[in-house]
Amino acid sequence: MAGKRIAVALVFIPAFLAILFYAPPVGLHLLVLAVALWAQTEYHRLAGTPPGLTVLALFLGGAVVVSMTANLPPMLPSLFLVGGIVILLTWTLVTANGFERSLAETSSAFFGAVYVSGLLGHISLVRQLGDGALWVLFLVLTTWAADTAAYAVGSTLGRRHIFPRLSPKKTLEGTIAGVAASVLTAWVCQALLFPQSSLAQVLFLGLALGISGIGGDLAESMIKRGSGTKDSGSLIPGHGGALDRVDSLIFNAPVLYYALLLLP
Prior knowledge:
This protein is mainly α and 264 residues long. The protein is 77% helix and 0% strand. The chain has 10 helices and no strands.
């Protein structure tokens, strides 16, 4: 398992860095779009969304991500979401066998588009800020550090389970280690990437991402428990599915984006 994880990292990390720093910004936008649709597809499989609704929801999720790329009107995401609601509800009226089930399926389809693609698309918005590429790197590094530390400490030293029914392997020790790793990584990033930025503000961002990443992980755990599934997929050797890999980023991307907008 560890060997597969390392092999995948050796392939994905250089490719990601090359796209982030050496390709035009559209390269990262396309990567975010691809990952978002991949993860959203896994969500719909877990949720049992009917094929027709899944296709419509993927079009909606993709449209929202594309609308977040540069040089597009800022109201487009809202317009796509409103249009998506109309289309999905119209689909329900036309195809419904039982309205109670159809309403639940339609709500789940819309939720998948917003929860996965809508939130993950904020990575593209972060990229468009000043020093956007560096902030995307900061986002990925702090999230990765928190996930890695939480897993390593939780699996070896973890004793106190904090959400046994929702996430049996999540422990207090691992959670504390994850948040601490996120803050420590933020401190290193401030020294190397953002020496002009306030250390207190960067550490605050690290703390916020460490905490919100836990929420993202628990949200996906709830979805998987509800579907009786351990992993969202198996296409990434040693890592599960795409949704398993980006569950923390789904919450962290909008947290970082709006924090950067609000901080002086």
